[in-house]
Amino acid sequence: MHLRKRVLVTGGAGFLGSFLCERLLKENCDVVCVDNFYTGTKRNIVHLLENPYFELIRHDITFPLYLEVDEIYNFACPASPIHYQNDPVQTTKVNVHGSINMLGLAKRTKSKILQASTSEVYGDPTVHPQTEDYWGNVNCVGIRSCYDEGKRCAETLFFDYYRQHKLNIRVIRIFNTYGPRMHPNDGRVVSNFILQALKNEDITVYGDGKQTRSFCYVDDMIEGVIRMMNSPEDLTGPVNLGNPEEYTILELAEKIIALTRSKSKIVFKPLPEDDPLQRKPNIDLAMDKLKWKPRTQLEAGLKETIDYFRTL
Ligand code: NAD
Ligand code: UDP
Question: What's the pTM value of the predicted model, to 2 decimals?
Answer without folding.
Answer: 0.97
